[in-house]
Design goal:
The relative contact order is 0.12. The chain is globular and about 65 Å long. The chain is of the alpha/beta class. The protein has helices spanning 4-10, 12-18, 39-45, 95-98, 118-132, 175-185, 226-235, 263-273, 319-333, 353-358, 362-368, 374-391; strands at 23-26, 52-55, 83-85, 103-106, 135-139, 191-195, 255-258, 282-288, 300-306. A six-stranded parallel sheet has the order 3-2-1-4-5-6. Helix content is 30%, strand content 11%. Helix 5 (118-132) crosses helix 6, helix 7 packs across helix 9 (319-333) and helix 8 packs across helix 9. The protein starts with a helix and ends in a 5-residue tail after the last helix.
């Protein structure tokens, strides 16, 4: 397989179109070639000079650990060009940052989940390029979560920095494909070029969206491996709860736990509630003590979601449903357990974090309703997943 950046470097016709243009680059640590050369180095080496760069959440170097830790503009850095922050005093590209550019090259590794902020950063860049009449080229990369779709579609009025638009939690698209969908859905008058992945086989058994020859580089600090990426469409919902998602451990977003978590009882109850939602993974009872974030320095009981097993199949593994069953089990076993965390999440103050993350009140209300059954949620999920599958036809 050839990545979008490699397709650009190897394609003389595409390179000709960039000649004598002033180029911006949106990048982070995973913006690398298959031989792990960073885009900011590989592009100039191929005769494609960069005039400015943009760093998304966690920074262009990926050095900002916390979710809402801002990074600042850098007019002087180790790079030979200025680096503008897309997660600082503003999350949208400014007119000043784009003024001297002709084309922006967008080269971020995504994880295929709506909540991951790089999707919204791309939308904001599309809107800015449309407003200031700049070209935008998406250097596409694989979707390591594969093509499977899961979750309810984000509802109107639930847009946020973790909700770019009416997509399901796990949307099945590459960023390039998502850009094509956004351009048409939001009617953006942007000059858009998607430099495709070549020979990309996202449904290849054993790879499931991520080519075996491609090393994994963290696109952000808490994305250390493919198991995390594949669990993330479910475990990201833990950010809206008082359950730990394992931040501050070596397995962030693969762990679930709490100082008062009744692990054996919860796992047993999850199997009773919806055994069909428990496929293609093993939940291993464990203990962990986060060094920071929720329950820091406290011993948490919980479980690790293991996907590094022979029977893993992304078409069967449903992380959104898995975590829904976990929340339901906790509420059934401990009705008075304070599950939902009320705090300012990604600059939003008027809605519960869990509703911003899931894109509606559906999941929370289903968990809190003692009479609501798995089939009730399954019906809503199937409805939205089918609707999305029909409209997201940008798969190439």
């Amino acid at each position: 397989m050839k990545l979008g950046i490699e397709n650009l470097i190897d394609n003389s016709e595409l390179r000709k179109r960039l000649k004598n243009k002033r180029l911006g680059l949106v990048a982070h640590p995973a913006s690398v070639t298959s031989s792990l050369i960073h885009s900011a180095i590989a592009l100039p080496a191929a005769g494609i000079p960069i005039a400015a760069a943009f760093g998304p959440q966690h920074g262009i170097r990926g050095e900002k650990q916390y979710n809402m830790e801002e990074n600042q503009d850098e007019m002087k850095s180790e790079f030979s060009f200025p680096v503008w922050s897309l997660y600082g005093k503003t999350r949208r590209p400014s007119e000043e940052s784009l003024r001297d550019l002709d084309i922006v090259l967008f080269d971020l590794q995504d994880v295929g989940t709506r909540v991951y902020t790089f999707l919204t950063t791309m939308k904001y860049m599309m809107e800015a390029c449309a407003k200031f009449k700049k070209e935008l080229w998406i250097l596409d990369r694989p979707n390591p979560a594969g093509r499977t779709v899961e979750g309810t579609i984000l509802e109107k009025d639930f847009e946020s920095f973790v909700g770019a638009g009416p997509l399901p939690m796990r949307h099945g698209l590459t960023l390039g494909e998502a850009a094509l969908w956004m351009r048409d859905h939001f009617k953006l008058d942007v000059q858009l070029e998607v430099v495709k992945n070549l020979d990309y086989s996202p449904n290849k058994k054993g790879e499931w969206g991520w080519p075996s020859e491609m090393p994994w580089v963290n696109p952000s600090p808490s994305v250390p491996n493919l198991s995390m990426v594949r669990a993330y469409p479910g475990t990201v919902m833990l950010e809206g709860t008082w359950l730990s998602e394992g931040r501050g451990t070596t397995h962030p977003l693969e762990l679930v736990g709490h100082p008062e978590f009744k692990t054996k009882d919860v796992i047993k109850k999850m199997h009773q509630i919806a055994p069909e939602w428990m496929k293609s993974c093993i939940l291993r009872e464990c203990y962990f003590e986060p060094t920071f974030d929720k329950h820091a320095k406290k011993l948490c009981a919980g479980f690790q979601i293991h996907l590094d097993i022979p029977r893993f199949n992304p078409e069967e593994f449903k992380p959104y449903r898995l975590m829904a069953a976990c929340f339901k089990a906790v509420k059934q076993l401990q009705p008075d357990f304070e599950l939902w965390r009320d705090f300012h999440y990604e600059y939003e103050k008027d809605r519960l974090a869990i509703d911003l993350i899931t894109g509606s009140e559906i999941l929370r209300k289903w968990v809190d309703d003692p009479s609501a059954t798995p089939s009730d949620l399954e019906k809503l999920l199937n409805q939205d997943e089918s609707a999305w599958a029909k409209q997201s036809k940008w798969i190439y």
